[in-house]
Amino acid sequence: MSSRWSRRNGYLSATALSVLVLGWGLQIYGFGLGDSQWLSGWILVGMICLLMMYNGRKKITFLPAIRNRTWLQLHLYVGLAAIFLFLMHIQWRWPDGYLEFSLALLFVLICASGIVGIFISRLFARRLTHQGEQLIFERIPAFARTLRESADDVVKESVDTTESTTLADFYVRTVAPFFGRPSFSPGYLYNDQRSYYRLANELAAQKRYMNDKEKEFTDELLDLLKRKNDLDNQYTLQLTLKSWLFIHIPLTYSMVLVLLAHMLLVYGFGSA
Amino acid sequence: MADRLQKFDYRTSPYERPDKTWVCGRAADGRACQVGPDKRGHCRATAECVPMREGDRWRCKRSAFYGGACERGPNPDGSCCEKIPPCHPIRSWRARRGMFVRWAVALTVGCLLIIFSLPDRAKFLSPGTLSQGHAALEQCETCHASADGGIGEWISALVGSYDHSADSAQCSGCHNFGSNALAAHSLDPEILKSMTAKAESASNGPVAITVAAALLSADEKHGAGLNCTNCHREHKGAEQNIAAFSDQMCVVCHEVKFKSFSDGHPPFTSYPNDRRTHLFFNHVSHIDKHFLEDENKDLAPHACNDCHRTQAGGGRMVLKPYVETCSGCHNSQVSGDGRASAKGIALLGLPGIDVATLVEKGISIGQWPEYAEDDLSAFMNLMLHANPDYAAVQHALADVDMLDLEDASDETLERVNELAWIVKDFFYELESRGASVVSERLAESVGVAEDSSDQLELLAALPPDMVSAARVDWFPLLLEEVQRHRAGLPNATVAIAPAPTPKKSSPDDDADDEDFDSVFGDDSEESTAEDFDAMFGDESGDVEIAIDDPEPESDSGASTPASSEAFSFSDPRIAVEDRASAGGWYREEYQLRYRPAGHEDKFIQSWIETSAESNNDSMQKLFAELTKDGAPGSCMKCHSLDDVDGKKTVNWKVREADPNNKHFNTFSHQAHFNLLDQDGCLACHAFDKESDYASSFDNNNDPHKFASNFKSLSAETCAQCHQEGKAGESCVSCHNYHVGEFKPVLPQQRTLSTGSPAPE
């Protein structure tokens, strides 16, 4: 077992232990006629504040605080513990009040988006690493343009050199759209590249009608086609890695507001 | 192509700033300009470079990113020849996420504002469905005292403190748990402390319980700061049992901590025998002795359910009605049939006085029956106590034999004189004003409110005709005498003889005939006339008597014993008290008596109850009279008197479960019937034949000093079924939390006539 897995298991064990201790403590608090929901609620608020501090920590980069990586680990495992504490807080029963339902739903969506975020951060990062070149997301459109211009140049050179339009005709008719702007294709999320292979096979099949020179240009074009495929793959995965935060963070702010309303009502109506 | 797409050098790699809000509009096309938009999202690009003037020439300064200096070079006017067409900058991904956040916040705030400002916001703010019992409550303020206050008050509660007791008071509007509703077990804290002191020495339970107990202060363990919501949490859904209570919550506060009923529960001490039975019924002696006697064999029960049945609801076993159980053997004892002593209780009557001596000594008490020889009855004693002079007279005559006053001192004779007039005064009032005199005196002596139902039962419709008839016979000239006495005029003592009514006798007693004749013969009328002359002769001619009719009793409508009609309807050979065998009032000699009208006679019951509960000496004497051995009705032969902390209660009925009276223990007999084997009830209730059951009632009014006919149950017996995985062992299966008498709160309604709220 690698040290990373050992560390991860250690963190998971510590989280599980913390959850058990919290559950036990809440139970004991309830035995003494204390309001365990009140206690779990405040612990949950504390956890949410800690979780939100991670976003702040990322914005305040100059602080010599704990490393971002450590913060992320803390965020992940505190978040995991918060899920169980949340279940204890709602007493394993889905609330049916409008406000409480909304709050619980927001919490669940945030947790779900967070879990999805963890999952894709681990999975996609590995796939992006395996793919080879790691590109800056903002530069991908420029790279796509570069590849398109390169493909155009190959096709023009082919026509000029071989005086045959077989490759050019096929390029214009079939391949050129693929070299357009970087595109988001859901297939890449689950590593489905059939559209690329279909196109590449069709292009390769054209070689039977070509002379050797044309075949060389076709091979160049196939290489560019693969790079564009990789680029689209990069674009799709990186865009997805950015997009889940579009759910996770805005919903967090919404949840905090609903949480404040919840606390106002809890205290205002004497339930605490 | 083996080249890497991404290069990192200052000529080919632009510096990316992901925190920028705006990016070039052509970036998506891969042709972003280097200038980029300003902070407000306006395109700033004009040309690929800003040519620099060197002498009289302009030199291209295009960056290497665009390919370095261009071939054409700047225009003659110094502007760049490579214009950049303007774009529409777009937001960066980060900025777009920020927009999402702002929109989400705005949307959430908007929704919350709308919800909080809605007139029926309670529907949206409610944290969940109420339990079924509370489902009809729709207004927050019904339960939440702060609901009316609005958001301002809620915020102050959030930052300050909340008065939970106010909400609990709202609960009490419908749920009555007495004056100690918020105390532990709804008990008086002092009682709880005394119970705690009686508990076995403290012991530790499971670790969690020990820790939880350690977190509680001593006051908290005794219920300090409790509110309804500590245990009852609402808004958890319609199916939620808000009265659910975990065993651990019980054990934490209790001194003796244990894991479960089957593991560590303190042993039962005397369960279910927590006191003596209400009725003095010795199961062992009845079953082993009385039921075996020949005359009782046919009446004896064969099984427990011949005498016992379940109370409605199946909780408690109770006794079947008297007529189905005890009456077969004990009815004659109640009715008095065959009793040698009086079958009715003496109530209104005259004390016997040595009239001859008074005549001799010149004491003027007016007429007095010569043959009256009873003591003053306890009831008369009670009535006379309303007279302020009576107490002194009673004290002075306590040891005096009023039937023999020959050797009495003048002072004693004077006291006898006073007593005689007190008695006459009472009968005078009774004759003049009827039973209201008794009512007044009861109210004055005992505190029983006039016109109350108790009064009605105590008076038992005292028949005025009988009182009047008795008075005519006993004191024919009472009205005149008393008025003369009150006027300070003398009334010569006259002995009236013979007695006006048949003496107590059996139908075959010949002696009665003489008495009967003496009562209903002409002599009685003659003697009355003579008495009148003797009293109101010439000597008293100067006294003006406010009586026109010398025979006032004839106006009263009272039938005198001399009436021929009375003779025709009464067979003198039958004893008077036997004629009253169905119960009720009757006159015997110089006493008006009451004979119980069978079992559960309200009159006797009421007098026993009232006299038992009173601390008045006269009432205590009356109680002793009513409850002595052989007293009419023989009520206290079976019914016991409890005296707990000075509060006396006569147990007329066996113990029955009062749904409004909650005890610590609760048990349903009916739920356990299917568990019984051929031994039936005896499977749990085994006879204890060694027990001295009778001692529980022998000069003992403390119900908790007792010996039971039955052996106590053991916790192990119950634990055979009551354990995890079988019948369960929750504390609340057998115990109630709220203990006490809690009457349901009746709904407030508007008065039918006005529509306005009913007055408190």
Architecture overview:
Chain A is an all-alpha fold and 272 residues long. Chain A has nine helices and no strands. The two termini of chain A are 47 Å apart. The model of chain A has no long low-confidence stretch (mean pLDDT 91). Chain B has a domain at 345-636. Helix content of chain B is 33%, strand content 6%. Chain B has 28 helices and 15 strands. In chain B, strands 7-11-10 form a three-stranded antiparallel sheet. Chain B has a two-stranded antiparallel sheet with strand order 1-4. In chain B, helix 13 runs antiparallel to helix 26 (617-627), helix 17 (453-459) crosses helix 25 (602-613) and helix 25 crosses helix 26 (617-627). Chain B starts with 21 loop residues before the first strand and ends in a 19-residue tail after the last strand. In chain B, 27% of the residues are buried. The model of chain B is unreliable at 502-569 (pLDDT under 50). The chains are: A mainly alpha (272), B mainly alpha (760).
Low-confidence stretches of chain B: 502-569
What is the count of helical runs of chain B?
Answer: 28
Q: In sequence order, what are the helices and strands of chain A, one letter per element?
A: HHHHHHHHH
**Overall morphology of chain B:** elongated
Number of domains of chain A: 2
Structural class of chain A: mainly alpha
- N-C termini distance of chain A: 47 Å
Overall structural class of chain B, as computed from helix and strand content, comes to mainly alpha
Query: Which whole number gives the mean pLDDT of chain A?
Result: 91
How many helices of chain A does DSSP assign?
Answer: 9
Strand percentage of chain A lies at under 5%
Low-pLDDT sequence parts of chain A: none
What's the overall average pLDDT of chain B, rounded?
Answer: 81
